[in-house]
Amino acid sequence: MGPDVTAFSTTRHGGCSTGSYAEFNINRYCGDSEACIRKNREALCSLLGISDDRLLMPHQVHLTKTVRIDEALLSLSEEKRREALEGYDALMTDLRGVCIGVSTADCIPILLYDEAHHAICAIHAGWRGTVARIAEKAIAEMKATYGTRPKHLKAQICPGIHLDSFEVGDEVYDAFAQAGFDMESISKKYKKWHIDLPECNRLQLIAAGLEPHNIRVSPVCTFHQSADYFSARRLGINSGRIFTGIVIHHSLIKKANHP
Predict the structure, then answer these.
(1) Would you call the peptide bond into 23 cis, given omega within 30 degrees of 0 as the criterion?
(2) pLDDT for the residue numbered 62
(3) With left for phi above 0 and alpha for psi between -120 and 50, is residue 228 left, alpha or beta?
(4) Which of 247, 231, 258 shows the shortest CA–CA distance to 12?
(5) What are the angstrom distances between the C-alpha of 18 and each of 10, 26, 44, 127, 241?
(6) Low-confidence residues of the chain, pLDDT below 50?
(7) Out of 27, 114, 144, 171, which could bridge 119 as a Cys pair, Cβ 3.0 to 4.6 Å?
(8) What is the pLDDT of residue 197?
(9) Within a 10 A sphere around the Cβ of 131, how many other Cβ atoms?
(10) Closest-CA residue to 243 (of 2, 7, 66)
(11) In this predicted structure, what is the pLDDT of residue 3?
(12) Which whole-number Å values give the CA distances from 195 to 134, 183, 221, in the listed order?
């Protein structure tokens, strides 16, 4: 996304978690061992060249609120930081040396980079957040806070569930249709309806003003590639989560796993 930015999604490999959390999970809200989470966080922070208090992930609730990560938030105690990140599904910052990210296991993670204003954003877009246009709302927050111009944004839509794997009930299809989405572009009928979440979010980014050539979409389907990426549909809810993060560095460092 840029020479001074690392954007990545973790895989299941290389950590110490076990069972359905194996091996690399840093999500504290899915039932994994706190000891394993801390060791996995330590390994990721070491790779990124940051301290643990500079690795930030919210407790997501499938809504559309964006939290700004600033020095005031970073100065809080660990407990207070967790409280401050409760109930958000997107984070943004213009601070260097701070990794912001979201946690997924089939939902769609989106990373945004505003090189002109040195600002970044990480978005968790499950189907509910996608219906509620979280990507568009997060971009609006970047515009209001940093002066971001959408046509200059670069976006990466990261590993998540794809069209052929995301079977939904009629109520989910109807939610997208009632929200005004072009259903011919984002859905397909097999025995039941399937929704193309990556494409739906790509179209949202374009509607928000991004240039199509500045949007990249990962080919990874988490459901099909669950040996390498966590998939709640494959492993159940009580399983690990992918962490998709982005950080602007003070200087170049070794790159993490890119989506």
Answers:
(1) yes
(2) 96
(3) alpha
(4) 231
(5) 16, 12, 17, 28, 13
(6) 252-259
(7) 114
(8) 98
(9) 21
(10) 7
(11) 81
(12) 17, 9, 13
Q: pTM of the full predicted structure?
A: 0.94
Residue 92 burial (CB count, 10 A): 24
d(C-alpha 203, C-alpha 210), whole Å: 9
Q: How many angstroms separate the Cα of 39 from the Cα of each of 26, 28, 36, 49, 82?
A: 9, 12, 5, 15, 18
Q: What is the DSSP string of 8-39?
A: EE--S-SS---GGG-S----TTSS--HHHHHH
pLDDT computed for residue 256 by the predictor: 42
Which two structure tokens, joined as six digits, stand for 101? 């990210």
Chain-centre distance for alpha carbon 168: 21
pLDDT at residue 259 in the model: 43
Residue 2: the pLDDT is 79
Q: Write out the DSSP string of 193-259.
A: EEE-HHHHHHHHHHHTT--GGGEEE---BTTTTTTTS--HHHH-SSS--EEEEEEE-SS--------
Q: What pLDDT score was predicted for residue 183?
A: 97
H or E stretch at 109: strand 108-114
**Residue labelled with tokens 């922070």:** 45
